[in-house]
Amino acid sequence: MTGTTAPVARQHQDIPETVARLRDTFDSGVTRPVAWRRRQLQALRRMLLDHASAIEEALYDDLRKGRTESHLTEIGGVLAETEHALRHLGRWTRPRRVAVPLNIKLATARVHPEPLGVCLIIAPWNYPLTLTLNPLVGALSAGNAAVVKPSELAPATSALLADLLPRHLEAVTVVEGAVEETTTLLAQRFDHIFYTGNGTVGRIVATAAAKHLTPVTLELGGQSPAFVDETADMAVTARRLAWGKFTNAGQTCVAPDYVLVTRAARDSLLAELPGAVREMFGVDPRAGSDYGRIVNDRHFHRLTGLMGAGDLLTGGDFDAEDRYIAPTVLTDVPPQAPVMAEEIFGPILPVLTVRDVHEAVDFINARDKPLSLYAFTRDRAARRALLEETSSGGLVYNAPMIHLGVPNLPFGGVGESGMGAYHGKTSFDTFSHHKPVLSKPTRHDTLRLVYAPHTSRSFALIARAVSRTHPLLGRKR
Ligand code: NAD
């Protein structure tokens, strides 16, 4: 545990005072030294290791997450991000020298990263630990104070974070709550707002931020397509699709939403998918410990309402009391079906047949830009078409979701799937201002030439210098 502790704001009336206190902390300068940042990251690591079982229990309570999945996608994910930041913090925080052009010579130029101030992190419920703490790693690495607002739809994890974070970290306050609390928070002035969740609330966040000219990162969702053609290894593809789709019962922002399979690959993919699901979750996934539940009744009923489209290949059963929906694959789903109209965010995988990659590209481009696009193909032309003719937050060949595990890759959306990015150095950059610092010596006043009064001699010298830098300018037409 480190130094002083920041309080948990329990009442939303406390929020303005809580934020003001955090601003005082930031203004005192304590968060700036790299040593402080390092201590915070070490304390966060300690917290995760010491309280791993309590975290596992909270994730089980909220989403029935299995132990292994919790370690893989939550505790392990945050630990990896923290370790990466600890390893590279020295380099990231060092001012970076840059070259200066000839006419400014004898000056030295540096880019000096500085913290933004007090940041607000608003997290969703589906990966309630990772999506709260990974942005926090970035905020702390960059030397900020932060208010963390976990999702009320994952109440056990929210309560645990409200208990643990202020006991382990300085300059971090947890505000628990829902719309009312978040609305009060959004009325305060922050120096950066990092929001993960749906686009409707994303717009509310961006509108509130605009009042204070606060920059925002919006990590949103949408439909993430998977393309499969006949050159793919079908057994591996089916396994990876089943893993990507049914982990956390499909409640993953980067889960493959639907599959576009070429006519030539359709039958072999459909032959593999049911077996892949069975291999992973057993004949009765409900009985196993590796399959999650739907977060609440509203989402449960929304999802069961989407299951009528196309033909049922596997799954289809559900139990309202347990909020259980079996891993479900639907085939020959019409593009106009309700299940194709919105992000599914649950364990339903529609499979649609396309003629070839070009039809798949047209299909993808007719919709909002996805958060992730997955291409299961060994065909170079198909890979290139998907890379160059579509736009998405990220593109992964032959596997879903694993790009999140590469800290050197920026993670974020584009268009409707979000703005801004994070992970690794990108997180540090997101929560920093990269201040240009130029230092010009006074010994030889080389700027004299540009001072008024301007003479024909100074004009001639400047014109010559400009034409040297822009040779076309000096040419007679
Ligand atoms: P959610 O309901 O937990 O909401 C997210 C946050 O917004 C919560 O903290 C909540 O309290 C707050 N909120 C809700 N309504 C609000 C309002 N009216 N005003 C202010 N704040 C409000 O989570 P969700 O939005 O259902 O999350 C699912 C969505 O998030 C999906 O679209 C998914 O794709 C997306 N998502 C994206 C990522 C990513 O990294 N890009 C990760 C996870 C989820």
Structure write-up:
With 477 residues, the chain is α/β, with parallel strands linked by helices. The protein has three domains: 12-220 and 422-433, Aldehyde Dehydrogenase, Chain A, domain 1, CATH 3.40.605.10; 225-409, Aldehyde Dehydrogenase, Chain A, domain 2 (3-Layer(aba) Sandwich), CATH 3.40.309.10; 447-477, no CATH class. The protein contains 16 helices and 18 strands. It has helices at residues 15-27, 34-50, 52-63, 67-93, 130-141, 155-168, 179-187, 199-211, 234-246, 263-281, 297-304, 357-365, 380-389, 424-430, 456-469, 471-474, and strands at residues 96-98, 108-115, 118-122, 145-149, 172-174, 192-196, 216-219, 225-228, 258-262, 311-314, 318-319, 324-325, 328-331, 348-354, 372-376, 394-397, 418-419, 432-439. The strands form four sheets. Strands 10-13-14-9-8-15-16 form a seven-stranded mixed β-sheet, sandwiched between helices. It has a six-stranded mixed β-sheet with strand order 5-4-3-6-7-17, sandwiched between helices. A three-stranded antiparallel β-sheet has the order 1-2-18. Helix 5 (130-141) links the parallel strand 3 (118-122) and strand 4 (145-149). Helix 5 crosses helix 14 and helix 12 runs parallel beside helix 13. The protein is globular. It starts with 14 loop residues before the first helix and ends with a helix.
Briefly say what this structure is.
This protein is α/β, with parallel strands linked by helices and 477 residues long. The chain is built from 16 helices and 18 strands. A seven-stranded mixed sheet has the order 10-13-14-9-8-15-16, with helices on both faces.
